[in-house]
Specification:
With 245 residues, the chain is an alpha/beta fold. It has one domain: Vaccinia Virus protein VP39 (Rossmann fold, 3-Layer(aba) Sandwich). The protein has 7 helices and 10 strands. Bound molecules: S-adenosylmethionine (SAM). S-adenosylmethionine binds next to helix 3. The site of S-adenosylmethionine has 18 residues, from helix 3.
Amino acid sequence: MSGTTHSQFDDLSSLYEDMASWPFRKEIETPSVLETLGDVRGKDVLDFGCGDGTYSRILKRLGARRVVGFDVAEGMLAHGQQRESENPLGIEYTNALSESLNGQFDLVLSVYVMPYARSKSELDRMCANMARVLKQGGRLVTLPIHPDYEPDPQYYAQYGFSLTQQPAHQENVDVRLDLFYDNFNATVTACYWSFASLYDALAKAGFTHIKHKNPVPAQYADIDKAPAFLVPYLKRPHAVIVEAS
Ligand SMILES: C[S@@+](CC[C@H](N)C(=O)[O-])C[C@H]1O[C@@H](n2cnc3c(N)ncnc32)[C@H](O)[C@@H]1O
């Protein structure tokens, strides 16, 4: 896995940076991911499929020792590097997971990347690459599309996106993600993977402890007491947090 390719993400770095402030990410996803990662101070972290580098910057600011952002989309990496040159945090960006990175990281974070594996063998390879860079006892936190996402495409419209798949919940079938929030408008094509395929790919990569949970930050543990606007998402999130070690 090396080298940048032309990708559907090349022109979407500003959108993804903006998306970090969309309520479902800011209020639900980001705090849930950070709570799942735990204290990152002094840890070495690889942000696999780092996109514009939003999580890389958050993790470095939270005190991670080494943060490497890896992505295959040139446009995304350029955006991360631009932010790094404007405000140096010490993040390294790379388009290649060289062998020198094997066994180097306490944590691998990979947010919304597994759905871009187009075949089961690509999903297996992706998981193997996530596994090989971890230290013994290291941990992967990843967010694929929730295999039990709400199939009504309008369900997520109030959060700025829709998911459309026909038929819904079909293995290795395209999922269209339309993004429409703030002044942004874009369509991305992802791929649906069942829990069976996700767990199988992780197990093949050598992970032995695999579990998943919905993204629910501690402050909204009692979902019905969360702000009304967030409740439908909390009850039926479009992404799931998978932890593997
Ligand atoms: C939906 S974006 C998410 C970006 C970022 N993780 C975030 O949370 O905003 C998916 C990213 O995964 C990257 N990606 C897709 N397949 C990849 C692969 N096999 N290896 C590394 N990055 C990949 C894409 O280039 C894109 O930047």
